Amino acid sequence: MEKRIRKYFIILIAGLLLVILISGIILFNNTMQKVYIRQMEQTNKNLVQQISSSFELVIKQISDQVNKLAIYESDFESLVQKRKLKITNSIKLYDELKQIVMGNQYIHSVYLYSEDEGVFFDSKRGNCFRKEKFFDRAVIDAVTSKYLTTVPPHKVNNDVLIYSVIVPLKSVGTKARCVLSVNIDVGQLYKDVMKSNTGDKEINLYVYDENNKILISRDYNNLNKSIMKKQKEIDNAFPSRSFWSVLNKKVGVMDAVTYSSSLKSYFYVQVPFSFNFSKMFNNYFLLVIILLLFVTAVIIAYIILCFTTKPIKEVLTDYNDKLMKDMLTGSCHGKDKLLPMASNMEKFFKYNNYSLLLIDVNDNQLEIYKTVSLILEELSAPAGNLVMKPISIFSNRVAIIVNYNNNSVMEQLTDNYLRQFYQKLNEKYYQQVYIAVSSGKTDPALLSIAYMECDEIQQYKLSITDHIINYRWFQERKSPIIYPVELEKQLINNLLVKNTEGCIFYTEKFLKHIFEEGGLLTDIQIKNYIYQLQNEILTRISSLPISIKTSGSSDMKNIHSRSQIHDILLNFIQSICSEIAKKNPNNESIINEAIIEYIDSNLTENDFNLNSISYQFNMNRNYLAKLIKEETSYSFNDYVNMKKISLAKELLSTTMLTVEEISHRTGFSYAHYFIKVFKNMEGITPGQFREMQINNNNA
Fold first, then answer.
1. For residue 337, is pLDDT > 70?
2. Is 245 or 532 the better-scoring residue by pLDDT?
3. 528 is in which domain, residue-wise?
4. Coil, helix or strand for 489?
5. In whole angstroms, how far apart are CA 320 and each of 101, 295, 653?
């Protein structure tokens, strides 16, 4: 073994000395080709995917908004039928269409098509058109569909490029059918997306369909032309797409394409670029220096190998372990480097299947490699063709490469052996050990991917109760958990009214949500959610004369269990409750800032009542009514009606809204009830009040 290794070292040194000058040029070219060009190609790919996602997000938001309107809030059929009865009904119809336009900055216009009358109503022009005379011919055929559909980007009046979302409206008590066409200004969307993602006007974006027809472009003259022509321009200019071909021309253009399944279109970008020659020279010089240093290091290693008294087997083992670590962590990429490494370590790679075990201990100060190796020697491995090789990654992290003949051997390993292995480790590092198990691989070059799988699992320790986690199980359950804004509001409201039991109740619900909602959060996400909750609470109570100490970043960094998070957050909430109780023994200022403020902000909501307030503050309904009576000298209904009538008087004096519209804006379900309450409180009807205000202004 020793002679063979020395022979390999001599051959290696001789070969390196022979080709050192040539290798500098080759390395330079390969580096530029593989690193610089490929890096730019990946950057362009990420750019076009980001642009595609921006288009998809805007169009999805508008589609969801329109679909919700069509299902739940559609009253257009009634407005269409009543528009000829009163001019105000016609005005209201167009106002409703314009309200949809105002819902998103990229909505250009809205068409409402009445199938019964064969008429299009256009929000942009405020006019209606017969179907046969309607100017947007692309939409006419689409409105006959009974389902949600879209019309690809098309020009309207030769100046605006729009993408139409066609939604049939839900019929209510009538057979008349109406269809809504929401038109998105993709020309403006194109400009904004390109500005936010590139900021470079020289970058060209083309969106084309599956027939290679251009749908969206900066230059409208390119619309409906074949994308093959644009792609051919780059192929003609840079046929080889290599570093030297671009270097000769000083400047180049690179392209990238991605497919949007939701839009059924391709996004294609052309990005110009140039080279920095001084930087390339520095890279070349650095490569030569690195190569010389490497040769020097090899010579020194050979001298040490020949004359040191250290056993050659130990040197070889350390070297192999380092190569294995580099392979797992991504420092060594590609099968061309991995397979020669595997041939030098035949005893570790005897079978065709591979998996990885990644052992992590929370304490960074611990050294676990020796402990893991001793336990592997102590426990007998499962019967069968199987080899396990431990590799030290960090002081508190060890990877074990499992090389096995068939899947049944691996199943036996995970079912029984790993439990025994974990129990041995847990006896030494109580409740701090986590073992991640990767999916199976059939190629040693994929072990770096197996390491990434295990490393990803180790980022979810707080979300997973088991300490042995299989990647397949993890993938099935990995989904995001949205921050519980509603629970946060309810917790803060209970803090402000000094309801300690309610605070503890909603704190427990908050923790249960982020731990048991059905998805998984990384440890960092969980800690960020706790930070966010603490910051929101401190912001809301900042006007109160109290001092609260929060957990610092160092405290949160040392958290490794759910119980620690539970204790920190609960102590934080209880300390705030205690401080508020000391500073506000009678609850007066807190009620003014919380309950009354909540009533004033939400009294016009349709579902606003005493029950909704009691739910929001987790307080008894009768007790809450008593507090409101003591604070305002009015009953709950009288106080709310007084505020609503005050708002109605302001609208009657400053706007020309109808009495019915004002009644809805002020939270009354029916106009006649609004008139009754108004007259009871003011002694006159709303119409008489407005007339009196007009007369006073004219006088």
1. no
2. 532
3. 485-564
4. helix
5. 66, 19, 86
